[in-house]
């Protein structure tokens, strides 16, 4: 009773957060916190409605959703997967902004604990020095608590070998079953699950000796399966199913299933059969019930990888190769089509790549996601910081089995892998290398597009691509070109045989380290030179001019600003023109916003045409070659001079022009200034106070235009 009282008393402590605390900076996937008074301020940015992007102010989102007011209070925060778009709105005195997409979201609700959930008394921040991978191994009680809270069963080394819930080799000793209540106030980032994801059921472990028989029995009800099997035991199981197998060699007769494939220079030791699901088969949509599935849903949330549950102490930290600073994820093919021997070749290849890259804290970091029917994280970017530990970990990865659902794996990586909690560094390009045996068993185009729009550079390594007589079984023709970052051949490598995989180690390393060519790292928010052209004429007035500056600041806030990302410049005009600041003047967002605030109202006439010419010469001639040149002009009246010729000259020099008219602005001039189609690049509002309405449409248009660029 005494112990229970102490535990309950400790759980009542609620950590306090600041108004500017962002959900993405807090590692805990679910927590209760207390917001201070005074968070209803425009400087605490909020993105979304009901579901908020993770770089929103947590307390600002709570006020926006009506959970608390400006006096503060307790809130419950639950992190969920990222969304393709966030809708801005005005609610409870807080205006939230829209956003095209973000990798992580969160929900806010009343600060009452959910039944059965232990909440941390202190919060873990990604900027702190603490990390999930600690110098000494976790105590068994902590490991078991993490597993129990995720809904998994007691995991011993034997259970790991059977491959249901964890990876063999990640644990150094069996986990005992304790007889005490495991309640603690120690913050455990992986100790809770969120509402949008159901708790993982306790898996039933099947002995390894009976797994093949069970899998074969489960497959009897799935006629028409077409997927390659290259392992002797798997071929026998396939024969037991009565499946229509087709060899890639000279004979396709079912009676010749155990004949070796034609000699390609290296004799294969096991017979080869090939079978795939037909594209229209219902079985393709309803996957078989297999032994691995119960243990996989733990990773669908993206909040915990296997290393988070059982962190392994690192031997040493390597600085790595500083000329190759990339955050790299390999999508490892764990499908049954590959067979055990070729799965081992794949692991050897990944180990060799890790060695050749020069993994280290100041160089490339590498994580691995294995996919089959469903993807799961083997380890993330921060788990291993030197090639030796990484190679040892790769060697211990067991094969998942299942189909080759590459599209599903790309969606998983896009939503879950490249997060601050998983070691994403922000300044390093995000790279995904997809290993695929033959061809995927699902569609990849949409998942790949969303990943590219998030700034992920997608490479494909295709081994033993479909032969002519097999192409009819490929669900999505030209899937590589539909998936990769660019279709110029740089992002795809085709290998004729798994036994030749070692030959592409150096070519692949050279490509992923060529950061100048990783063009998909550039997104609509980090790859532009934006020049604002601001009407400072007498008709605007001092008060309205400050409203215009706030509008300019609100647009600028949405971009990633630095000397290598988006840069901002500004020109004010009347009869004359004044360069307020150039693209290279300020390299941080805060400096840019401060500079906008300091712009003083000029007052005078309205010579918009001369202002466009001046901006083209003073700003955009100094734009970087790899930047998109965007001009945003705001005016409240008709120009005293011609705008058509200067605007046409700017368009011909590659400037994308947006025109925003207020009050007495002339519609024909706005359309002449705007880039075609002018309806999408020109806006009009009757009052200055309504300018804020154009922040989101303007940014969405910039992003839509960026993402529709050709990929050749």
3D structure, described in words:
With about 700 residues, the chain is an alpha/beta fold. It has helices spanning about 1-10, 60-65, 140-150, 155-160, 210-220, 230-240, 280-285, 305-310, 340-355, 385-395, 405-415, 445-455, 480-485, 505-510, 540-555, 590-600, 610-620, 645-650, 665-675, 680, 695-705; strands spanning about 30-35, 50, 50-55, 75-85, 90, 95, 100-110, 325-335, 365-370, 375-380, 430-435, 455-465, 490-495, 530-535, 565-575, 575-580, 630-635, 655-660, 680-685. The strands form four sheets. Strands 10-9-8-11-12-13 form a six-stranded mixed beta sheet, sandwiched between helices. The longest helix is centred in the middle third of the chain and has 19 residues, at about 340-355. The protein is globular, with a radius of gyration of 29 Å.
Q: How many helices in DSSP terms?
A: 21
Unreliable sequence segments: 128-315
On the 0-100 scale, what is the average pLDDT? 76
In total, the number of strands is 19
**Kindly, what is the distance between the CA atoms of the first and last residues, rounded to a whole number of angstroms?**
69 Å
Helix content: 25-40%
**How would you sum up the global shape?**
globular
Question: Helix/strand-derived class?
Answer: alpha/beta
Strand content: 15-25%
Report the C-alpha radius of gyration, rounded. Answer: 29 Å
Domain LCCL: 35-106
Biased composition (Polar residues): 119-131
Subunit structure: Binds dermatan sulfate and chondroitin sulfate.
Biased composition (Basic and acidic residues): 135-146, 158-170
């Amino acid at each position: 009773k005494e112990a229970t009282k102490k535990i309950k008393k400790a759980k009542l402590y609620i950590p306090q957060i600041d108004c500017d605390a962002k959900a993405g900076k807090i590692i805990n996937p679910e927590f209760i916190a207390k917001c201070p008074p005074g968070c209803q301020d425009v400087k605490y940015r909020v993105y979304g409605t009901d579901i908020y992007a993770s770089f929103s102010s947590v307390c600002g989102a709570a006020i926006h959703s009506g959970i608390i007011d400006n006096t503060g209070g307790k809130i419950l925060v639950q992190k969920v997967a990222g969304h393709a778009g966030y809708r801005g709105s005005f609610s409870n005195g807080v205006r939230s902004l829209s956003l095209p997409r973000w990798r992580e979201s969160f929900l806010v609700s009343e600060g009452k604990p959910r039944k059965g959930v232990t909440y941390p008394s202190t919060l873990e921040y990604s900027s702190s020095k603490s990390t999930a991978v600690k110098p000494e191994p976790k105590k068994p009680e902590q490991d078991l608590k993490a597993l129990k809270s995720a809904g998994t069963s007691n995991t011993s080394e034997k259970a790991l070998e059977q491959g249901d819930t964890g990876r063999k080799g990640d644990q150094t000793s069996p986990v005992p079953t304790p007889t005490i209540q495991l309640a603690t106030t120690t913050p455990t980032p992986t100790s809770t699950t969120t509402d949008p994801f159901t708790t993982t059921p306790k898996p039933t472990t099947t002995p390894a000796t009976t797994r093949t028989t069970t899998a074969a029995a489960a497959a009897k009800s799935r006629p028409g399966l077409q997927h390659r099997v290259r392992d002797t035991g798997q071929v026998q199981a396939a024969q037991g199913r009565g499946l229509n197998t087709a060899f890639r060699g000279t004979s396709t007769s079912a009676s010749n299933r155990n004949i070796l494939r034609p000699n390609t220079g290296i004799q294969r030791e096991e017979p080869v059969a090939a079978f795939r699901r037909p594209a229209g088969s219902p079985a393709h949509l309803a996957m078989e019930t297999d032994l691995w599935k119960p243990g996989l849903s733990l990773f669908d949330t993206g909040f915990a990888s296997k290393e988070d549950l059982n962190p392994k102490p690192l031997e040493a930290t390597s600085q790595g190769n500083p000329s190759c600073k990339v955050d790299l994820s390999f999508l490892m093919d764990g499908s049954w089509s590959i067979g055990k021997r070729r799965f081992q070749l794949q692991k050897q290849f990944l180990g060799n790549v890790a060695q050749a890259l020069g993994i280290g804290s100041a160089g490339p970091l590498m994580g691995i996601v294995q996919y089959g029917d469903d993807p799961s994280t083997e380890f993330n970017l921060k788990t291993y910081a030197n090639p030796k530990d990484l190679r040892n970990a790769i060697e211990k990865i067991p094969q998942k089995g299942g189909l080759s659902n590459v599209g599903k794996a790309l969606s998983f990586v896009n939503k879950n892998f490249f997060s601050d909690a998983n070691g994403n560094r922000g300044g390093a390009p995000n790279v995904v290398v997809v290993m695929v045996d033959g061809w995927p068993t699902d569609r990849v185009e949409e998942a790949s597009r969303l990943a590219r729009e998030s700034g992920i550079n997608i490479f494909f390594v295709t081994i033993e691509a479909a032969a002519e007589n097999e192409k009819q079984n490929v669900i999505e023709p030209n899937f590589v070109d539909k998936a990769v970052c660019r279709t110029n051949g740089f992002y795809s490598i085709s290998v004729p045989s798994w036994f030749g995989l070692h030959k592409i180690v150096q070519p692949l390393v050279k490509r992923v380290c060529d950061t100048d060519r990783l063009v998909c790292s550039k997104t609509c928010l980090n790859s532009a030179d934006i020049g604002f052209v601001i009407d400072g004429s007498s008709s605007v007035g001092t008060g309205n001019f400050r409203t215009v500056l706030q509008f300019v600041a609100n647009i600028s806030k949405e971009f990633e600003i630095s000397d290598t990302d988006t840069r901002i410049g500004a020109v004010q005009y009347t009869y004359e023109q004044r360069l307020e600041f150039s693209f290279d003047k300020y390299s941080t967002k805060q400096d840019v916003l401060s500079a906008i605030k300091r712009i003083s109202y000029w007052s005078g006439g309205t010579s918009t045409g001369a202002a466009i010419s001046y901006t083209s010469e003073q700003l955009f001639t100094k734009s970087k070659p790899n930047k998109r040149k965007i001009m945003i002009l705001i005016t409240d009246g008709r120009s005293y001079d011609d705008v058509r010729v200067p605007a046409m000259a700017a368009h011909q020099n590659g400037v994308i022009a947006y025109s925003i008219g207020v009050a007495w602005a002339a519609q024909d001039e706005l359309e002449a200034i705007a880039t075609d189609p002018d309806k999408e690049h020109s806006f009009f509002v009757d009052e200055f106070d309504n300018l804020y309405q154009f922040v989101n449409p303007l940014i969405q248009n910039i992003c839509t235009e960026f993402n529709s660029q050709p990929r050749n």
